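JOB MANIFEST
job_type = single_chain_structure
chain_count = 1
residues = 254
[input]
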Amino acid sequence: MRLIPSIPLIPKRFTPSDGKKISTLTLDNGETVSIPVGTFQHFCVHSVHCNPRYWPHAPRSARNPAKTDDLEDFVPERWMLDDNDERTNSSTEQVRKSAQDQQQQQHSERSIDALQDHGGSDIGASSLFAPPRGAFVPFSDGPRGCLGRRFAMVELVGVAARILKDYAVELDVRPFLEPSKMASGSEMSNAAQWESTIHALSPEEREVVYAKASARAWRILDEELSGLTTLQQKGKEKIGLRFVRRDGGGMVFV
């Protein structure tokens, strides 16, 4: 939801409450811009979610070495507060101060409603990074924010937990397997044959094919995501997944 929010742009209209005909907007660099009342602006959610001022980040990207941060990488550990982690230590002082303020002042009311105490777990709310208000807005924010955000989060967590309980989700690497590595005997339409082929790969071979599949998936996401009201994949290329049963009962491709 941070990297690929369902709503890419949030329209806002300048309507100052003091009756003035000119509204002012202060930019990050301190510059003040005058905007006529009634002007529409579109709030770019992705840009806010990747702002290094408000998010822990590493000084380099594993996916794109040319970048000076990893904010466009999928790194779930970003949400964990750890003084020994390079993301916490290399981030701006504002990010670290925000984390401290959130722990001390907003323990019971956080930017993301789903971040709540785990009640006796080793990982509690105080161990999770809570972005400052306005830095994480997948459901917009304020009085006009999405009314169903709590239900959406509960539904998302419930579906993910139900699937991941029985299946491990991986990228479909079939397009990147060399013909010589294909299992012989039957026509490779059987999922069990594909499974035996993938499991027969050496660790080095698996790393290569999964790296290719990952690069392809990121390329499709970078090039083919677009949105009017909601974010959608417009291109013909699809990102294949395989769901591998954790009890060894086979796999399903989608």
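[summary]
The mean pLDDT is 76.
The first helix runs from residue 45 to 49.
exit_status = 0
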